[in-house]
Prior knowledge:
alpha+beta
Amino acid sequence: MFTYNTRGTCSRQILFDVDSENKIHNVKFIGGCSGNLQGVSRLVEGKDIDEVANILQGIRCRGNTSCPDQLAYAIHAYKMREVRQKV
Length: 87
């Protein structure tokens, strides 16, 4: 499970898994608007991580970011970690 500490949102952390086919699973937001974030989690379940990041990146709320935008940042952080681990 990958853990990302958010910045500028009500949610504090995002946790998720990525399978061998780059599909995202088990997305969980810690804090934030529970109903909305459960909806985001269900909508992205089983989707390609690049597709999810492209769709959610740039969505703004307060603080010039949003929980969906932070999920896009979390995916980018996950991908950077994977690249570093392969080197």
